[in-house]
Specification:
The protein has about 400 residues and is of the alpha+beta class. It is built from 13 helices and 23 strands. The protein binds flavin-adenine dinucleotide. Flavin-adenine dinucleotide binds next to helix 1, helix 2 and helix 13.
């Protein structure tokens, strides 16, 4: 059977639903085709089930992209305040957890219900369990699915990235872009735990579960948040954030005691030995981690004799320097299985920053995670999904 629409949106995630709502409100006949058995599945698991749906401090600096300016226009035209107003209209209770991150008080379910309700009100048809076999174009687009064919002059690709293949993530959006001659920036897992090499794993991973507030850096980028030791390496907000800037072979520089002078007491007349250092470090870092880190990094730690060693001022200065610059070279990331998002994607040079339309393929739009715009941790990725979805929905 053939169905004719003004706009067909591929993918009923955050970006696709927002796009459909905005287009539907403008009187467009919109269909959303979704492969899964329900809309917005990733929204449901997001933010630990409470969906960190935006961040009130959202700025273009919170996004990575080959073109740092691309996201500005869409972000300025659909702001956190716009999404908050929508949530409030639907009586969704929310709170700021930390650093401007807004979460639902009750459940992420409320966000998907809200989006579905808005779709209904705008006359949008959502089709679930759809297998898209082929997308072709003559004077308009033809989307061939099992049994049905959808015709429309406009197709919006909102099929997300590669993260969490268990939930059905695939390269569909990137493949479609290539099919229409639209370039892709190399994709990689982002907001993802990092894996130690064998040596570091042996030295630290029995401490799995230990966390500390650190300043994690890679290149010019720094994040001050908590770090967690896992069974395979490092995680926690600071590491997830910095992972988006990390690539194989690069060192991480981790300040384990930001703005603290850990060895001050030792330098100012106290004992200058491992016992005094342990006491000082344990006041700043979790006990087991402080002990382990010192065993591995204290100057000239000479086994049983170490307790009696007295360190020079230079040795103490070096110890202080090292605690503020623990250099770790991760072996890898945990990959797309554990990545919250996919960095890279549809090259923004190929898209209008105002409408998200591909310049080489008129009528074809890309929104959300499939585009080479990746937010920091903290509600920024949903804000990009809402903003890019709205930008396309207001133009199609
Ligand atoms: C565990 C987890 C927690 C997260 N928590 C947060 C958070 O709290 N805050 C935040 O800002 N971000 C969070 N994110 C990131 C956020 O979920 C994504 O950035 C966002 O969902 C991207 O929206 P999207 O619409 O582009 O893609 P998606 O939400 O992935 O939606 C894509 C949709 O397209 C469908 N689809 C895919 N291929 C096809 C096809 N061939 N045919 C039809 N349909 C298809 C998919 O089934 C899916 O429904 C989290 C991610 C994960 C994995």
């Amino acid at each position: 059977m053939i169905h004719k629409f003004d706009v067909v949106v591929l993918g009923a995630g955050a970006a696709g639903l927002m796009c459909a709502i905005e287009a539907g409100k403008r009187g467009r006949r919109v269909a959303v085709l979704e492969r899964a058995e329900r809309a917005g599945k990733k929204i449901l698991i997001s933010g630990g089930g409470r969906c960190n749906f935006t961040n009130i401090y959202c700025q273009p600096e919170h996004f990575l992209s080959a073109n740092a300016h691309f996201a500005k226009s869409a972000l300025a035209r659909y702001t956190p305040a716009d999404f908050i107003a929508l949530a409030e209209k639907h009586h969704i209770a929310y709170h700021e957890k930390t650093l401007g991150q807004l979460f639902c008080d009750r459940s992420a379910n409320e966000i998907t219900h809200m989006l579905e309700e808005e779709c209904r009100a705008a006359g949008v048809k959502i089709r679930l369990n759809v297998r898209i076999r082929e997308v072709q174009r003559t004077d308009e687009f033809f989307i061939r699915c099992d049994g049905d064919e959808f015709h429309a002059p406009v197709v919006v690709v909102a099929t997300g990235g590669l993260s969490i293949p268990k939930m059905g993530a695939s390269s569909f959006g990137y493949d479609l872009a290539r099919q229409f001659g639209v370039k892709i920036q190399k994709t990689r897992p982002a907001l993802v735990p990092l894996v130690f090499g064998a040596g570091d794993r042996e030295q630290y991973c029995d401490l799995a579960g230990v966390s500390a507030e650190v300043l994690a850096g890679c290149g010019e980028q720094r994040f001050r948040e908590s770090m967690l030791i896992t069974h395979r390496g490092l995680s926690g907000p600071a590491i997830l954030q910095i992972s988006s800037y990390w690539s194989k072979g690069k060192p991480l520089r981790i300040d384990l005691a930001p703005e603290r002078d850990v060895t001050a007491a030792l330098r100012d007349g106290g004992a200058r030995n491992i016992a005094a250092a342990r006491a000082a470090f344990q006041g700043v870092l979790p006990k087991r981690f402080a002990t382990r880190w010192l065993d591995l990094h204290a100057p000239a730690a000479k086994g049983a004799k170490a307790a009696k060693d007295t360190w020079s001022k230079q040795e103490l200065d070096e110890l202080e320097r090292r605690v503020h610059e623990w250099v770790v070279v991760p072996a890898d990331t945990e990959g797309y299985d554990k990545a919250e998002v996919t960095a890279g994607g549809v090259d923004t040079d190929e898209l209008s920053s105002k409408t998200m339309e591909a310049s080489k393929a008129r009528g074809l739009f890309f929104v959300g995670e499939v585009v080479d715009v990746t937010g920091h941790l903290g509600g920024f990725n949903f804000q990009w999904a809402w903003a890019s979805g709205a930008a396309a929905g207001r133009s199609v």
